[in-house]
């Protein structure tokens, strides 16, 4: 049986997804502040867009940077959806099941909740800089912004994280 050009592309994309999907889900989970369902949706949307732009991805000078930028763009697009503006986040989420004992260390849960409070691009800057240890230039490339913006976004993001984590430790409500 002869393998056509489209079949080869599909197989290449399939191999890529098999190799990278788990890492994408981990990154998306951090970018969504621990929301596993939104992370799965984000990865699905990113992979769909990546499939459409597969020739551009393959020609990219920095495929990892291309992939990170695609993920962040999908995250930002997700937060622009009208229903996101209608719903308001609250400090207490009664409709979310609390993790069972032993599922997640308490500190990790607090960090995820604090991350969730950050705006998407600020959260992405913090995640890429401090969870993935990208340098400022790589983070700027992933976010499609200047290095100065990365510096200011990470500084503000860290300030907000400290404040949120202090509130969770002291139990103060602002």
Helix/strand order, N-terminal first: HHHHHHHHH
SSE-based structural type: mainly alpha
Mean pLDDT: 83
Overall helicity = over 70%
Low-confidence stretches: none
Number of helices: 9
Kindly state the number of beta strands. Answer: 0
Shape: globular
Strand count, sense and closure of the main sheet?
Answer: none
| Share of residues in strands | under 5%
Radius of gyration: 18 Å
Straight-line distance between termini: 67 Å
Keywords: DNA-binding, Sigma factor, Transcription, Transcription regulation
Family: Belongs to the sigma-70 factor family. ECF subfamily.
Pfam family, one: Sigma70_r4_2
InterPro entries: RNA_pol_sigma-70-like, RNA_pol_sigma-70_dom, RNA_pol_sigma-E_actinobac, RNA_pol_sigma70_r2, RNA_pol_sigma70_r4_t2, RNA_pol_sigma_r2, RNA_pol_sigma_r3/r4-like, WH-like_DNA-bd_sf
């Amino acid at each position: 049986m002869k393998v056509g050009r489209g079949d080869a592309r599909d197989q290449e994309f399939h191999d890529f997804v098999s190799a990278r999907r788990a890492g994408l889900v981990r990154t998306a989970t951090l970018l969504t502040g621990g929301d596993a369902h939104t992370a799965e949706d984000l990865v699905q949307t990113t992979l769909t867009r990546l499939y459409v732009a597969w020739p551009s991805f393959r020609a990219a000078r920095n495929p990892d940077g291309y992939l990170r930028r695609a993920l962040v763009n999908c995250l930002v697009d997700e937060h622009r959806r009208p229903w996101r503006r209608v719903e308001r986040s609250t400090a207490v989420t009664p409709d979310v099941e609390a993790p069972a004992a032993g599922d997640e260390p308490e500190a990790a849960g607090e960090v995820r909740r604090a991350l969730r409070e950050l705006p998407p691009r600020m959260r992405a800057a913090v995640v890429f800089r401090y969870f993935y240890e990208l340098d400022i230039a790589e983070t700027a490339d992933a976010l499609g912004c200047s290095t100065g913006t990365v510096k200011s976004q990470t500084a503000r993001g860290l300030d907000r994280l400290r404040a949120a984590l202090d509130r969770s430790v002291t139990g103060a409500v602002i």
